[in-house]
Design brief:
The complex is a heterodimer of chains A (about 260) and B (about 525).
Chain A lengths: L1 H11 L1 E11 L5 E11 L3 E6 L5 H8 L7 E6 L2 E2 L5 H6 L1 E4 L11 H5 L1 H5 L4 H14 L4 H4 L9 H13 L5 E5 L7 H18 L2 E6 L2 H7 L2 E6 L2 E6 L1 H6 L3 H10 L10
Parallel strand pairs in A: 3-8, 3-9, 6-7, 7-8
Antiparallel strand pairs in A: 1-2, 1-4, 4-5, 9-10
Chain B lengths: L2 H7 L1 H35 L4 H13 L2 H8 L4 E3 L2 E4 L4 H25 L3 H9 L4 H31 L12 H10 L2 H30 L4 H4 L1 H22 L8 E6 L2 H18 L3 E7 L3 H7 L5 E5 H8 L8 H16 L1 E3 L9 E6 H7 L4 H5 L6 E5 H5 L4 H8 L5 E5 L1 H9 L5 E5 L4 H4 L2 E4 L11 E6 H6 L2 H7 L7 H12 L5 H11 L7
Parallel strand pairs in B: 3-4, 8-9, 8-10
Antiparallel strand pairs in B: 1-2, 5-12, 6-12, 7-10, 7-11
The chains are: A alpha/beta (about 260), B alpha/beta (about 525).
Chain lengths: ~260, ~525
Amino acid sequence: MILNWLCMSRDSRRAIEFRNVSFRLVNEKTLLSGLNIEIFQGETLILLGRSGCGKTTTLKLINRLLDPTDGEVVVEGTATTQWDPIRLRRRIGYVIQEIGLFPHWTVEENVAVVPRLEGWGAEKTKARARELLEMVGLEPARFASRYPRELSGGQRQRVGVARALAADPPIILLDEPFGALDPITRREIQQEFRSLQERLGKTMVFVTHDVREAFLLASRIALLKDGKMILAGQPAELLKSADPDAKAFADCLHDPEPAEGRS
Amino acid sequence: MSLWDFFLNSRAEVLGLTVEHLILVGLSTGIAVLIGVPLGIMLTRWPALSKPVLGFANIMQTVPSLALFGFLIPLNIYLFHVRILGGIGARTAVVALVLYALLPIIRNTFTGINGVDPAIREAGRGMGMTNRQLLFQVEIPLSLGVIIAGVRVATVISVGTATIAAAIDAGGLGRYIFRGLRMNDNTLILAGAVPAALMALAADLGLGWVEKIFKTGVGGWFKNPKAAWASLLAALGLIVWVSVALYPAKMDRRIAVGSKDFTEQIILGEIVAQVIESKTGARVDRRFDLGGNLAHEALVAGEIDAYVEYTGTALTAILKRPPVSDPGEVYRRVKEEYGSKFAIEWTEPLGFNNTFAILVRGEDARRLKLKTISDAASYAANWRAGFGQDFMSRPDGYAGFVRAYGLKFTELREMDLSLTYRALVERQVDLIAGNSTDGLIARHDLVQLADDRHYFPPYDAVPIVRRATLTRSPEIRIALKSLGGLISVAEMRQLNYQVDGEHRVVKDLAREFLRKKGLKNGE
């Protein structure tokens, strides 16, 4: 009985689910095969793996920038192929690797993209953009009317995060958001992001190849290799795993770099 | 007369032609943008189309303008009762200019939009932008600098090409250039070329400035879709309005008199026009200055009702018959064939024969005692000859001419007819083929060598009219009959000289001539 109840409650808390998902390119190259994973509301799942293992592909399957070749990706109880892609994407915040700020718009206009597309009123949009800039540590008075080219890398990335949060989406996807930053800025922004995470309680899927970042931010970690998932579990489970790839990643944690974070 | 004096004296006309030129360029570039930008965007959506479409635009740019005009004039395409293609005048010129302007605009739109950073495009899609939002809010604003650079190139090309439009009576600064070439008048050529060059420069600088603004990214305007659509509609409306203004519906059908593109033709066109006006009271449109065979094509197409043709030209160049030397025979044959083939009537001959005149410099003629073409044959081996394109290509022209007299030149130059006189005077060539009625013959001390072997067929000038026009307004036949036998070769040469040499105004000259002949009352 209790087990049953647990299952049901888990079910209702499921934000995203991959059901035996494969993705192949037109030239038959397989980027992802047989992926099964559940992502629960409010958790931060880290997709960890080396370059080219299928992390970004997995992310793009969630907001339907890609459609699965086999299987299905279910978001909030509905398969992505049944979702109107525009509606789906506006419910999902997205922070991409290259940031992709719109260079012809000011910081404020960049942050306000989705509210504007959603047709919020001008006042509400403006207030929301300012609130978000505060939240990511950019003083609105100083930054709102600047253009992206007038910002440092770290500031741009904060704008990228603020933009993803703008319409208060329940799910946020982040694709190596802090990869291009210098180590000090990266650490700073990771710490801030962590407190933001705790405050907001969003479902987040976060791609990285940086194992320290993974341990700092993860509720759970899914380890990918060559388009397959090797394991998924609490960070502690990764440390205990006998899998050679998991071991290799775990070993990186003990490199003689400045220790950090959660462990 | 210095260029400055010319501008001062005729500033109203210069301004008028400049405005015409601006309208031609503005309208054609505007239409090219409205076609080219959406087409360029379409190509980014279906890249497979890019090769054929860009290839076509590329080919259009290589087609010579006169050839393009010749192809466009006979077309007769209507859209909601408005003729959108064909005919002479601004419409055809604008169509040709649009075709020339398309390539840089399509190409720059295509490369501009394809050049938008893929990360930015993906961010837009990931934010949930629809394709249209992505296009209007991200892709177009970011490629606007490149697109405007294309518009800038197209505009500058158009300013230059639009001078050719004068060849089909579309007006613009090309009128001065053509007139200047014809009259051998540098001031006139510059009067057309300098404002056109300034206009090109201004367009280049102005659009360069706009391009710079947009390169740094002005996005605010595009985020308001209503403003964007309103501007687009406003631009569209402006273009439609100017188009409608340019092509008024022909409610009252007037008489249109045409002419070819040389002085004599314009004088004759004006004489015919004034006679029709004074004898019938009809209002006459003047569609002068039609290049190549365009006058004939315009007459057949019903674009004009009458112009003055030459019997020999009609026989050989239009009807493609072998040359005949008996004037009466030639007239009879063209009258018959034009009637059955084109429903065009030959009225009374005007009285002079404008045959090809083989010309040399007066001093050469006197020194070598040259009277006839046969006299010159022995010197020809050391001479350079310069002939117009027309003379080179027509069946009663160059090929038969050198065969008839057994001529061989050291060098043969093919150039515009008006330039051959200049080349002869400036000793670039030693012999040219001009026209026997040309006013420049006397002005530059040139000597016409007699056609002692009677090679050149007769070229009697005769007004020709569409039969449909005569049926509708029979009084035109009577008006033109009064011109029969009215103008001698000497008189024609004199009229030509007064325009080419003394820069008389054609309208005044024609009025004066008709009054002298008792065909027009003093006004």
